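Handout, section 4.2: multi-component inputs.
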Amino acid sequence: MDHFEIRMKDVIVPSMPESNIDFYARSGEITTIIGENGAGKTTLAKTLAGIITKTSGEILINDTSIDIHSISSARRHGIYMLQESLHIFPEKHIMDNLLLGIEPLIFHNRLFNPPKEKKEAVCRSMLKLLGLDLDIYQMIDHLSQGEKCLLQIGRILLCQPRILIMDEFSASLTEYEARRIINVLNVLKEDGICIILISHKYSSVIRHSDRIAVVHKGQITETFALRELGKQEFIRRLLTFNQDFFYPKLKHKPGKNLLTVKHISSGILRDISFSLQEGEILGIAGLVGSGRTTLIQAICKERSIRSGEIIYHPLLERSGAISVLPNESIQDLLFQDKNISFNITSSNVYKASRFHMLSHQKLDIYARDYMDRLSIRKASCHIPVTQLSQGEQQKVLIARALHQNSKLYILDEPSSNLDMTTKSELYNIYNALLSRGNSIILISSDFSELLGMCDRILLLKSGEQLGIYPADSIDNNIIYNLIDKWGNQNEKADSI
Amino acid sequence: MFKAERIQRIKEIIFERKQIDVSTLSTLLNVTEVTIRNDLEQLEKSGFLTRWHGGATLNSDLYPEQSIPGAQAAFPDISFDKEKDEIGQIAAKLVEEREWIFLGPGTTSYYIAKSLSKRQNLNIMTNNFYVSYVLGGNPSINLQFLGGKLDHSGMYTIPDDLQSHLEHIYLNKSFFSVDAVSIDGGYTLSDVTVLEIIKTMKAHCSETILCVDSKKFAQRAFMKLGDLTFAPSVITNSQVPQEYHEYYLKHGIRVFTSYDLNLLNL
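Output:
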């Protein structure tokens, strides 16, 4: 593919009328746009992909102005964008998910459905390129998040993009899956595709980029590139983003034994034992496929256990005593078309009812009270949850769990996609929960988070318990080495 | 909402939260601040609460102060401050057994001492009379009091020659509060002697922890203690302004914020 450069010049968009965007990216590079929540990263990318129409300014490829006013006009220039949430066809197999709707583009056959063999061949070669060892007739629903994300990339690759924009793709993925996608992106980069990533400062993704653009309040305030600065200087600049985070860890007085898991086996889990006390935060470190989800399901009695037993303290027998924030996109966990008040109080409406009559006034008072306590900074409790930022949505979920007065909180990757301030706020909320005698099980693939916040860490690998360690007796490297061998292989990429 | 019902609600809310500001009440109940002020005035007359600028506190005789066996009850002159109370609880969690702790001047230290008063095997050094008042009743706490000239307004002593006092002494953690914080101005104090005490103690301490309740942000006092990076850990409330929280984190400062999760029950 030919070499090209894309440039946005003085672009102004309706939602940010006071800032003009100047952006530059080139083929054969990974350009990462970083910035705080709400700084305008996604707006920038959406303008480029034609999802948001610009009010003025121009977009140039190799100094020729191109007209982008809609998604299809952007695609005509080979600009494709992968949005933050996954868009797949559920209950369809992989081939359909790759090809549906774009057959004419690939096979240039407008009238008839292309022959099955041809379609299969195209899909197989794509799966090979993506490094996926899957049957093309397998249903997509059973795939992991990472595989679904790869398939989405595959679908776009079939359209032969020149510019591929990916919005926070690593948000819902584990570190391992994210690396797998980065590897694919590196191959694509060599083929001369211009890749634009949108990310947080603290994401591991930025280590793999060639060019960084920092967005602040809708404007690009800083850009630097690997080829201009040289490797050493570039890495030094990156390091300034990636300062150590200081975890606000407090020691809480442990209370009664809430939960005792004795030698349980269920699904892929084999012989797991641990106990959890009031005021304790237990970390579970494990990659995807380590049985983390199975373990949660077993604790919630959603899955039967083959052997062993789980002993619950009477406090946990009440309904609503265990709250789970699963590792799904927040969109699936909130009532999308409802307001904040509804979303928070839905876990226990009886609290605001009397003689089976519901008082909306009381519901709203409760909701505003939670918003005040958890600093959800919005003017009203009646605005739809879709208008909240990720961190605020996460807080709404915690408020909902609080509203049913839960005792045990199981949090699965709760802070994977949050900026530093929101993270710090969440950690302090955990502290407040613990000091009230609640317990937390924190599941994360960010090991430094586990080390920073947890009292003890349980290491899981493909269903087996590798051990349970006090958090102050181990460090990141030990976990990596224990959990997986690829931790060693990729250490070079990691050491940045 | 009718007035009688609203006053009932305000009573319930203040009873649960002990202290609240007018703007929060007005958003909670969805009425204007003027209305809230009138209601609070009425409640103050009836002796239910005490108003202060921008808010109100439940009168302390209406709720039983947790009686601490072996220790003294609340210091008579100090009016209840919920934010400082929360900070005190967090600070107490940072204190480990057998460590040497310094509690500096100010009422925040009083609240830290209050949270510590039931603990055992603590070593505490202070020049604050409030602290000695609270902890003096607990014989399992080893208390060192620094003598000197009394500052009447703050109830603390000004040691004559602190430097030589501390010559061979090392402490694990010290807790101080400041009068005002701003991003450009750093930490500022209005009292020169307190500033000297903090500076001297810092050199003898492995960790200095500043306790700043959220009312003190974006303000300036008389003398500068240091930049916002002066202490590696800060304890504050959840209402800390976002830009300060962000500034702290960007400069590698650990931020503890209190969240009050004792929820409403209407």
